């Protein structure tokens, strides 16, 4: 039982209207209000939480009869005095390919702009937030961690604190191995257009097709080609030979936070705190990525970076929010 409460707010997006995939532009924004919100007029810092690939804002609220979900754990930490109260913002950034990677793309839609210029102002206008960057954090897992890093690097005007749990980065290490199984699955379906049409009917069938749809979604985010036939993107590998295609892969790498950090020293300097973690047996090598991120952030002059590794892999790690949320909120400006 929550001591705070969940509010379901609805937002009609101008930037997502007429998006290339025809995905809905009217979206739900789930908002957690902490205990005590209804008893006073205090204002609260906010934490925007971004889910991993193929997960939605509602996944964070996933019910289990055996253990509390992420919001229930956070609620209990507030009640126990283990964490300052804050408002959690759970936005819907899903696309028909399973995820937007939370960036602006001519092939999917302007999802980073949606977050920065529509979701956050909507929450500020609707709830008693502290409406300033110093009181806003963003955090996510896997692709959500990538989205959190990118929001901090691209839009330091809207957030000051970033958390990334095994966030996608160091693409040469973490993403490149997925290209071969993805090529096998996409080729077996008859090519990219055929795979894109089939995979939305019931989702990916097995691990190779999951890699395939992830590479499809990532290509649409990182290497869009709006004038090309659907799905309007360039794959970074040859489906016949499996060879890496240098030009599309360079476009992928241009989105890699490890690549961007040295180019964004001014943004990095504005980040009050960055929390990074990953399991030491991450199946995608994202613990290597977290180490590279920490090194790059330190080299770029980040004021405060915390890197933690724990025993585990990539999945089943939502419990790590119990560690990150108190730290992230502790770094935010309070009312």
Please outline the helices and strands:
Elements: E1 5-12, E2 26-33, E3 46-50, H1 70-79, E4 87-91, E5 104-105, E6 109-110, H2 111-126, E7 136-141, H3 143-154, E8 161-165, H4 171-174, H5 179-188, H6 192-199, H7 207-222, H8 246-253, H9 257-260, H10 265-270, E9 273-279, H11 286-299, E10 305-310, H12 321-330
Parallel strand pairs: 3-4, 3-7, 7-8, 8-9, 9-10
Antiparallel strand pairs: 1-2, 2-4, 5-6
Helix pairs in contact: 1-12, 5-6, 5-7, 6-7
Structural key phrases:
two-stranded antiparallel ribbon, 2 domains, Rossmann fold, 10 strands
What does this molecule look like?
The protein is an alpha/beta fold and 335 residues long. The chain has helices at residues 70-79, 111-126, 143-154, 171-174, 179-188, 192-199, 207-222, 246-253, 257-260, 265-270, 286-299, 321-330, and strands spanning 5-12, 26-33, 46-50, 87-91, 104-105, 109-110, 136-141, 161-165, 273-279, 305-310. The protein has 2 domains: 5-170 and 256-330, Rossmann fold; 173-253, no CATH class. It has an 8-stranded mixed sheet, with helices on both faces. A two-stranded antiparallel ribbon has the order 5-6. Helix 5 packs across helix 6 and helix 5 packs across helix 7. The longest helix is centred in the middle third of the chain and has 16 residues, at 111-126. It is globular and about 60 Å long. It starts with a strand and ends in a 5-residue tail after the last helix. The model has no long low-confidence stretch (mean pLDDT 97).
């Amino acid at each position: 039982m929550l001591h705070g409460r969940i509010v379901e707010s609805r937002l009609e997006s101008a930037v997502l209207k007429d998006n290339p995939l025809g995905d809905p532009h009217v979206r739900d924004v789930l908002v957690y209000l902490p205990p005590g919100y209804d008893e006073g007029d205090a204002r609260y810092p906010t934490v925007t939480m971004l889910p991993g690939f193929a997960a939605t804002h509602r996944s964070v609220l996933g019910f289990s009869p055996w253990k509390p979900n992420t919001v229930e754990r956070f609620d209990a930490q507030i009640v126990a005095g283990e964490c300052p109260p804050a408002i959690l913002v759970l936005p819907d950034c899903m696309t028909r390919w399973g995820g937007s990677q939370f960036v602006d793309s001519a092939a999917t839609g302007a999802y980073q702009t949606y977050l920065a210029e529509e979701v956050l102002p909507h929450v500020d206008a609707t709830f008693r937030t502290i409406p300033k960057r110093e009181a806003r954090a963003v955090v996510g897992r896997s692709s959500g961690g990538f989205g959190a890093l990118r929001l901090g690097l691209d839009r330091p005007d809207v957030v000051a604190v970033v958390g990334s749990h095994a966030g996608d980065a160091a693409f040469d290490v973490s993403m490149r191995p997925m290209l071969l199984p993805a090529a096998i699955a996409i080729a077996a379906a008859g090519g990219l257009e055929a795979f894109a049409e089939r995979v939305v009917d019931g989702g990916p069938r097995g691990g190779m097709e999951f890699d395939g749809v992830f590479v499809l979604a990532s290509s649409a985010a990182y290497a869009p080609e709006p004038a090309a036939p659907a799905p309007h993107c360039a794959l970074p590998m040859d489906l016949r030979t499996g060879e890496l295609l240098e030009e599309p892969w360079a476009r992928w790498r241009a989105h890699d936070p490890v690549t961007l950090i040295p180019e964004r020293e001014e943004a990095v300097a504005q980040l009050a705190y960055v929390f990074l973690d990953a399991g030491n047996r991450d199946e995608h090598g994202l613990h290597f990525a977290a180490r590279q991120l920490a090194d790059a952030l330190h080299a770029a002059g980040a004021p405060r970076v915390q890197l933690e590794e724990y025993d585990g892999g990539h999945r089943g790690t939502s419990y790590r929010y119990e560690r990150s949320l108190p730290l992230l909120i502790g770094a935010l400006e309070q009312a």
